[in-house]
Design a protein that fits this description.
Serine Threonine Protein Phosphatase 5, Tetratricopeptide repeat, three-stranded antiparallel β-sheet, Immunoglobulin-like, alpha+beta, 11 strands, disordered N terminus, six-stranded mixed β-sheet
Length: about 400
């Protein structure tokens, strides 16, 4: 993009639109400005002050044409484009914020209207003046709760009441949290404490009535041992259940191997061997793939460079200096290649990402950026383009304006 200090190329389009508005041709004026904004974004930049002013006038004509939805879209896009370059405290940006508030109020969007009018009420008096119509409209909408310029916004009444009343204003809910103390439960008259009269003792006669059990090789299935059908041989007898100290019969411990001596392994063993073989095959395949990746990685001593990926190369421009002229800043630098490389100038606000604003041919060592906000700080860096994919960037150089505002 070339420097924007030349005469406005969009001025004739704006004057033609005003003539059409005076003649009552709002549709013709809208078409002229829409075409001018489109061309301005292509040939200048979407955040160029001339393009922003033309888009603002387009939003004004859309309001006159009773199309608030289209006006809101154009104004919000214009505000977003100019915020990075001009900030909220720029006179044009405050006029855009005022119109956004007017359209939002018409559409019933109170939240957006309050946000836009708040910006005008806070910054408008110092930029546009106390008696400016936009400031008066913003203050009239906000009413007594409007913020004062340079002062903190008042706190919400609820927060103020909570701080003034303190903990006494906290209402304890009816449902209380459970505590560790156990509740007191009255005993039912039907429940009696244990005594010899209501307790039964396990006696030997009742133990004798328990039928004796005989155990075979069929066992309950467990995780470690499958169900095995009994063999054709005679069933082995096991001693009856034994009673130990607590009077509870215990099952006897079965001795001997779970499978018949000299017999073949059960079907479960064959199935288990098959599962184990499948798992081993999967593990072997995973190890083989990992080994292949490792071998291929070792064969390449250095990663292949993509010719389309930008890399650092060559010396960076030096001695970058700024000449601050308020709304225009001139950037100068030293050419490290003696006139053999092109340059790209990048700009941004402090702490934000720098964006390209101009590309210059070999041998050029200065650039002027105009249309800036005189109350904001800006940072610049110059990039030397050695090839299509090799660059060298200079350190940033930033303005130091004492009256700079954070917006």
């Amino acid at each position: 993009m070339a420097a924007v200090s030349q005469a406005s190329p969009l001025g004739p389009a704006r004057r033609r639109a005003q003539e059409l508005v005076g003649a009552g041709d709002l549709a013709g004026a809208r078409a002229v400005l829409e075409k001018a904004v489109e061309l301005g974004k292509v040939n200048l930049a979407e955040d160029d002050p001339d393009v922003l002013l033309t888009a603002y006038e387009l939003g004004t004509i859309l309001q006159l044409a009773d199309d608030p939805m289209a006006a809101r879209r154009v104004l919000e896009e214009t505000y977003a484009s100019g915020l990075w370059r001009l900030g909220d405290s720029d006179p044009l940006m405050l006029r855009i914020s005022h119109d956004i508030g007017v359209v939002a109020e018409e559409l019933g969007n109170r939240h957006e209207a309050r946000k836009a009018f708040t910006r005008v009420a806070e910054l408008g008096p110092g930029v546009l003046g106390e008696g400016h119509p936009a400031v008066a409209r913003a203050r009239g909408y906000l009413g007594p709760e409007q913020p004062q310029a340079g002062m903190a916004r008042p706190e919400e009444p609820r927060a103020e009441a909570a701080r003034r009343e303190g903990p006494a204003a906290v209402v304890v809910p009816v449902v209380e949290e459970p505590t560790t103390a156990l509740p007191v439960v009255e005993q039912s008259p039907m429940v009696q404490p244990p005594s010899p009269g209501n307790q039964r003792t396990w006696v030997a006669e009742e133990q004798a009535r328990i039928p004796q059990q005989r155990w075979s090789q069929v066992e309950e299935p467990t995780i470690a041992q499958p169900v095995v059908a009994p063999g054709p041989g005679p069933t082995a007898a096991y001693p009856p259940a034994q009673v130990f100290g607590g009077g509870v019969p215990q099952q006897p411990v079965m001795e001997g191997p779970p499978y018949p001596q000299g017999g073949a392994s059960p079907a479960y063993g064959k199935k288990g061997l098959g599962i184990f073989a499948a798992i081993a095959a999967v593990l072997a395949a995973v190890i083989a793939v990992a080994a292949l990746v490792f071998v291929l990685a070792n064969r390449t001593g250095e990663p292949a460079r993509d010719p389309d990926v930008p890399t650092l190369g060559g010396a960076a421009p030096g001695d970058v200096r700024l000449k601050d002229g308020g709304s225009a800043i001139t950037v100068t630098w030293a050419d490290p290649s003696e006139g053999s490389v092109s340059f790209m100038v990048t700009m941004g606000r402090p702490g934000q990402e720098l964006k390209p604003v101009s590309t210059l041919g070999p041998g050029q060592t200065s650039f002027e950026m105009s249309g800036l906000n005189g109350e904001l700080n800006y940072c610049f860096a110059v990039v030397a383009v050695y090839r299509n994919n090799q660059f060298a960037t200079s350190p940033q150089a930033c303005t130091s304006r004492a009256t700079a505002t954070p917006r």
